[in-house]
Amino acid sequence: MKLRFISEALGGQAITLTAAENGVVAGPLTAGNWGGTEVSTAGNIRILTDRTTLQVAPESVRFTVDLSNALFDSTETYSAVTGQTHTNAYDPRQHDLIFLWDMGDDTQWTAPVNILPKWKSKRYAKGPFVSHCYTQPGSYRVKLTVIEPSSGKVAEAPELVVNVSDPDAAYYGADTICVNPVGDNDFTGAPTGARRVNTNTLYTEDALWQNNLMGNKNRWLFKRGGTYDVGVQITNTTRDGVYFGAYGTGARPILRNFNTANQGRIFDVKNQHAAAGTKSDFRVAGIEARGGFDPSSMTVSTALHPDRGRAFMTCGDPLDLVVSDCRISGFMLTTCGFNHGDVDNATQINHHFDDTYITDFGGQYVIITEANIHPKSSFSATGLAIVQNIDASSDDNQLRAPIRSNGAYFTHGRGCDLFHTSEAGQPCWKVEERPTKGTSANQDGHIINIHSSTMEGGYPGPVRINGNMSIYPRSNIQNAIFDGNIFVGNYQSECFISAEGQGLTVRNNLGVKPAAPTTGIANRLLAFVAIRNDNDAIAAGETAPIRVFNNTMLIHSTSQQHLDFVSPFTRDDPTASGLGAYPDVTQDNNLLHMYALDAAYVPFAPVTENVLFAPRCKGRRLNATFTLDTTFASVGDVLDTKPAPGSPALGAALNGLVSHLDISGDLRPAYPSIGAWEGD
Q: How far is CA 475 from the centre of its chain?
């Protein structure tokens, strides 16, 4: 077998690698075997791409895999537990196979902070569906290896070259408008032939905006280092592309909207809902956007005032959207809202946020997308940081999930850094909150792939998948994979993933529950994955596996604080109704790491030798008043998952026979004993 991603580091070393999943073991093989050259044993696979309209930098590219000629053992119509034959709403290949991608891009994200250093690399991704934003024009060589751990089969796709065009060519000459502040006539760095204007403001009603909407596409470039008051509507859905960006050198240009112009929005893509199949191409790159909201000094209700920015962007039209290399702060309501009409279900919609930092947001969802059942629609977040101000004083009972991605057929999250302070019923990421149930099988089973990300805070946990199932006619079968993430709960988190639905694989993740000085609800921890089923009934045959394996649950508390704690990794939520309707639930090879635990839970864990980061939570915030109780906080503590000498978790994680990759992606050597660990 061949693993391109570890062969350079391990080739020739006498280290044994073994992978285990649900009791099935692949290996052991030496590092030299893994790194050697071997002909594919799993038939032919190929990479499929989906692109934006213009295909210019920054360019969002979506990647899937054609497995129709593959020879893997896993097929798409089985359940090992129930023995049932499913429709293609659940595809076991998405869960059973390991997809390893080389995006051919050696750059790093700059926005995320509390993620592992290796996760900041744009080069590597994993999973059955991935997205990538190429920020510079050029040719990129994309590679893919697919491994089946249960059989040892491996396949490599033919290398694919992705060509990304220069926006200067797409927006040539007068299609580009370069903006300088009033009195600044130095246009150094402006593209050849671009129109040149001097202004400090750009509003929809301005003649400057109206007179320069020429042709089928426009690019507005603001000089770096300048500050501009901006609030514009983009209403022509037949346009080939609208682009807002920067030119020159120095700091990002600042675009701000502190008043009522354009209803307090910087960008407003109006709700036209054109004929099915039509969409626009919209890009925002390299800018800083500021509103007037300060969550440390005002609530949402008091911020509803003419001098406060309302939103960075709202979109009502189907479009290919790319937001890349931006910094966004101080918007009181939805920072980026996307709402669509029924006609849009026949139109492909793609939203991609890349290397962007958002903070100081107000009371509603920072990013919210509505359901769309086009089979190629997608939502992607790569290198996205949504980090609330840790001193946010009040949320007016409205501080909701930073991301609520509803119903796109494909969802990809990678290298994300999410944190918010609310403990009032909102997670960091609501995934498939309202997954629309289609009329045919290929409109169900949406593919969700979230990996190499950190999420801090949230109730009932950092992630909620498939919510509101009892209220809406939604699909309850997904293909959701959470692989190699760090989830840090707050003091009220009851789990790390709250699942109301099926078709879920949770593997190689680390979940951390902070210590609290008292017993009670602040210490309530149900499981790593808490399963809810509020559906009135599950139709015959509509079941899919829920598999939770190779995870670590780290509890910063003592046994006395958890006298009533039961340690399953997958458990029904006792507050939900209709429990017991999901028969295909398995958990395997997980580790409970608890300082005062008397015995190890089971022998596997993606713990790490590295000190990770200091979690941002400053203490517990009461649901009713949002008052901060700092007695719950461990100020100055850093997240360190390395078991201390003598910890029973040490013997569980390292039994002397098995080596594996830890949560950081590093190989963990096989230590023969605790003493060997102590000498490390």
A: 21
Token reading at 531 = 């399963």
Helix H, strand E, coil C: the string for 414-470 is: ECCEEECCCCCCCCCEEECCCCECCCCHHHCCCEEEEECCEEECCCCCCEEECCCCC
The two tokens of residue 609 are 């030798």
Separation CA 320–CA 312 (nearest Å): 17
Cis peptide before 643 (omega within 30 of 0): no
The answer to whether the beta carbons of residues 253 and 224 sit under 8 Å apart is: yes
Verify cis geometry, omega within 30 degrees of 0, for the bond prior to 28.
yes
Strand partners, 138: 164
The span from the CA of 59 to the CA of 55, in Å, is 6
**Can you list the positions of beta strands (E) in 556-638?**
570-572, 585-588, 591-594, 620-621, 628-629
pLDDT tens digits for range 35-73: 333 445 788 999 999 998 889 999 999 999 999 889 999
Cis peptide before 58 (omega within 30 of 0): yes
Handedness of CA 453, 457, 461, 466 (dihedral sign): negative
- What dihedral angle (degrees, nearest 10) is formed by the CA atoms of 428, 382, 413, 432? 70
- Residue 574 has a pLDDT of 64
Q: What is the DSSP string of 176-239?
A: EEEEE-TT----TTPPTT-EEEE-SEEETTSHHHHHT--SSEEEEEEETT-EEEEEEEE--TT-
Exposure string of 219-236, with b = 16+ CB inside 10 Å and e = fewer, is: bbbbbbbbebbbbbbbeb
Strand, coil or helix: 63? strand
Q: What is the pLDDT of the chain when averaged over all its residues?
A: 77
Closest listed residue to residue 8, CA positions, set 152, 128, 123, 131: 123
- Amino acid residing at 629: D
619: Cβ–Cβ under 8 A, 6 or more apart, which residues? 491, 628, 629, 630, 631, 632, 633
Give the 3-state secondary structure of residue 7.
helix
Give every CB contact of residue 230 below 8 A, 6+ residues apart in sequence. Answer: 201, 202, 203, 255, 256, 257, 266
H or E element at residue 565: none
Greater confidence (667 vs 128) lies with 128
Tell me which residue of 282, 278, 254 sits closest to 268, measured CA to CA: 282
Closest alpha carbon to 650 in 603, 583, 596: 603
Q: Which two tokens stand for residue 477?
A: 């079968």
Question: Do the strands 477-483 and 502-507 form a parallel or antiparallel pair, or are they unpaired?
Answer: parallel
